Amino acid sequence: MTAILEIRDLSVYYGRIKALHDISLTVGEGEIVALIGTNGAGKTTTMKAISGLRAAHGTIRFQGKDITKVKAHHRVGLGISQSPEGRGVFPGMTVRENLMLGAFTRKDKAAIATDLDRVLHLFPRLKERFTQAAGTMSGGEQQMLAMGRALMSRPKLLLLDEPSMGLAPMLIQQIFEIITEIREQGTTVLVVEQNAKQALTRADRAYVLETGDITRTGTGAELLADNSIRDAYLGVA
Ligand code: ATP
User: Chain-wide mean pLDDT for the chain?
Assistant: First the structure.
């Protein structure tokens, strides 16, 4: 496995509170890796440290390069793109405008047009809603828009924070199918999820985060089959 992302001894503080305790994890090129854990475990904090929205101690390497001190917008240029928790689309702007914002670091007009086609193919609903204000769309549609916008930077690594949050079961299924398709098209995916069942079913590998520590790792199938994981994260299925 060639690592695209290597995190070693990563710590993040909020004031005096240490939210992440020297965690280490690796994402291989072409993988879907899931990060699961309960509320407040530090999942979003981990994502923010990787995308550069939160300062961190330790080492973050992307394609072998130490990016720990690289600013967030430069990380986008290197190929890391985050679709944030709570969607974060610009409500007053149209679907088209939101998508084009995702390409803000790029100048290659023809390739941007190709990627826009690709995104609209992945999310036909966004094509139907192309000129509609993002704020008037449903939660699921806004989630698709946030993912589409993240893809418009043509990332090598896509960070998805809770893509299934607040969605109906059928839509959750659909979002994960799209995540699998995104990977098939060559983008590596790190996905944070409360919906552990879907995440573990789709992921090649997963890490379990508990109050700032990584307590377990394994293939998605291994963790799905594990009784303690079932009890803690999968509820009574
Ligand atoms: P959730 O699924 O509920 O979003 P999470 O696993 O993503 O949880 P984080 O949002 O990363 O968890 O939070 C990890 C810990 O850091 C929590 O205890 C949280 O209260 C704390 N924390 C997060 N952001 C801040 C902040 N801006 N200031 C202070 N503490 C914070």
Answer: 92
Q: Do 15 and 110 have their domain in common?
A: no
Directed axis angle between helix 169-184 and helix 139-151, to 10°?
10
User: Which of 109, 124, 154 is the last residue before a domain boundary?
Assistant: 154
Return the best residue to mutate from 36, 44, 215 for the ligand 1 pocket (most ligand atoms within 8 A of CB). 44
pLDDT for position 19: 96
In angstroms, what is the span from residue 46 Cα to ligand 1's centroid? 10
ipTM for the complex shown: 0.92
DSSP state of 26: E
State pLDDT tens for residues 168-202: 888 888 889 999 999 998 999 999 998 888 899 99
Q: Is 42 in the pocket of ligand 1 (CB under 6 A)?
A: yes
73 in the same domain as 22: yes
Residue 85 falls inside a structural domain: no
84 located within any domain? no
Does this model's pTM top 0.90? My answer is yes
Same domain, 71 and 112: no
CB-CB contact of 164 with 172 (8 Å): yes
Ligand 1: does its nearest atom lie under 6 Å from the Cβ of 39? Answer: yes
Å from CA of 157 to ligand 1 middle? 23
Q: Quote the tokens at residue 196.
A: 């552990």
